[in-house]
Amino acid sequence: MIDTAAVETALSAYIDARGGDAAIAVYDRTTGTSVSVGGSAEFQTASIVKVDIIAALMLQRQADGESLSSQEKAWAEAAITASDNDSATALFKAIGGRSGLAAANTTLGLTETTPSSSWGMTTTTVDDQVRLLNAVSDTDGPLSAANRALLQGWMANVIDEQRFGVTVGATSAASAVYVKVGWVDLDDEGGLYATNSVGRIVEDDHDWVIAVLSDHNQSLGTGRTLVDGIVTTAMGLLRSSDG
Q1: Where are the beta strands (DSSP E) in the chain?
Q2: How far apart are CA 132 and CA 168, in angstroms?
Q3: Is residue 117 packed enough to be buried (19+ CB in 10 Å), middle (13-18) or exposed (0-12)?
Q4: What one-character DSSP code corresponds to residue 165?
């Protein structure tokens, strides 16, 4: 039995020692184990919101009895695998912008995400990102099997330079790894970076959904190092106490 309180205490200490401007939530969809540090702290999404935008479009098309068009699929693939911003903007427009995203988030069970008319400035929490990832992964969730397969397929094929955070938590036992990262230079924070990673690691006995959000990083590099370290520490603690 995992002592989740001890894991959270150790993670809090790790984050505090590095400035405290980060949060992590991990949920094991197989065992129900859940840890959250800074779970309701708000962070700017940057490009991780692209998962949410695509899920919103899928929900709208499903409601109309339709599938994504070939153009929409091309935009969605580019937005996830290469984090193409122009594609994300086209998708955001297609869902009706902020109001479309807000409506989808109600269906997806998100309660702590605030869409912005500038999609990358949407704010969210690690707890809400875990809700989102679980909703788009669950066979009983709101997305159809075909749409789940599309979204997860794109998240499994993100380009190498954008595979950090969640991906460092995967071992050779992983049968699938899904990820979406995001970062942004925060103009109102003197050029400091928000650096985020969300995703999922599937193993024989575990199905980990992971969200790490951070800000006030001096650079993208230091943000990546922080996010990688938090995930490595979290998964190490969870695996070592899994008895």
Answers
A1: 22-28, 34-37, 43-44, 123-124, 176-186, 192-202, 207-214
A2: 21
A3: exposed
A4: G
Side-chain half-sphere exposure of 217, counting CA atoms within 13 A: 23
- How many other C-beta atoms can be found within 10 angstroms of the C-beta atom of residue 194? 24
Q: Which residues contact 209 (CB under 8 A, 6 or more apart)?
A: 26, 27, 28, 29, 130, 133, 134, 137, 199, 200
pLDDT band of 157, cuts 50, 70, 90: very high
The CA-CA-CA angle for residues 28, 63, 57, to 5°, reads 65
Taking every pair of Cα atoms in the chain, the longest distance, rounded to a whole number of angstroms, is 51
Rounded distance between C-alpha atoms, residue 232 and residue 42, angstroms: 22
> 3-state class of 44 per DSSP?
strand
Based on the number of CB atoms within 10 Å of its own CB, is 190 exposed (0-12), middle (13-18) or buried (19 or more)? exposed
CB atoms within 10 A of CB 106: 9
* CA-angle at 11, arms to 220 and 240, nearest 5°: 115
Q: Is the pTM of this model over 0.90?
A: yes
- Reply yes or no on whether the pLDDT at 130 is more than 90: yes
